Amino acid sequence: MRAIIAYAAAVVATYLLGSTVSTVSIMTSIGGMGVNVQVTDVLVAVGTDWAGLAGSYLPLIALAMVVALPVAGQLHSRMGAPRRTVYLLAGLVAMLALHLIMEATLGLVGFAAARSIPGLVAQGLSGALGAWVFTRVYPAAP
Fold first, then answer.
1. CB within 8 Å of 95: residues ≥ 6 apart
2. Where would a tag sit more exposed on the chain, N or C end, judged by fewer CB atoms within 10 A?
3. How far apart are CA 135 and CA 130, in angstroms?
4. Is 141 helix (H, G, I), strand (E, B) or coil?
5. What is the rounded CA–CA span in Å between residue 130 and residue 13?
């Protein structure tokens, strides 16, 4: 049961950070076009996106993490690789792969922030954070 709770926490953390980064990136771009964007506008947009992307982005993240986290566990246990490092890399790679696979298969980048290298890296880092949350909620067996 702890593993399921840790997985859910990792998915939610990845989703919230990835969605937030994407929204802030878009709002910054809008501000760069001369539109007056207030902090409250950004906060409202973040909240709206958290609710609005729950039906599309959240399940994609859940799918990416349901593959990445068990693979990280196997790499750790079979190869003796440092647990936290393996999980962080797995979360990062899962999110990078998610966006790159969507682009390769659908011919589009589904999330605006992932259209640039820094944005794609930020999405990857959101996966690393989610994996870090997993390691904190589901610590290694003694």
1. 14, 18, 61, 64, 123, 124, 125, 126, 127, 128
2. C
3. 9
4. coil
5. 5
Percentage helix, strand, coil for the chain under 3-state DSSP, each rounded to 5: 80, 0, 20
- pLDDT tens-place string over residues 106-134: 887 777 677 788 888 999 999 999 999 99
Instruction: Confirm if 32 and 62 have CB atoms less than 8 A apart.
Output: no
Task: Give, for 84, the enclosing helix (H) or strand (E).
Answer: helix 83-106
Sign of CA dihedral 49, 47, 123, 10: negative
Q: Minimal CA–CA distance to 91: which of 19, 4, 10, 1?
A: 10
Q: Residue 142: its pLDDT value, please?
A: 60
Cα separation, 22 vs 20, in Å, equals: 5
Are the C-beta atoms of residues 82 and 73 closer than 8 Å to each other? no
DSSP string, 26-69: HHHHHHHTT----HHHHHHHHHHHHHHTTTTHHHHHHHHHHHHH
Q: How far apart are CA 127 and CA 118, in angstroms?
A: 14
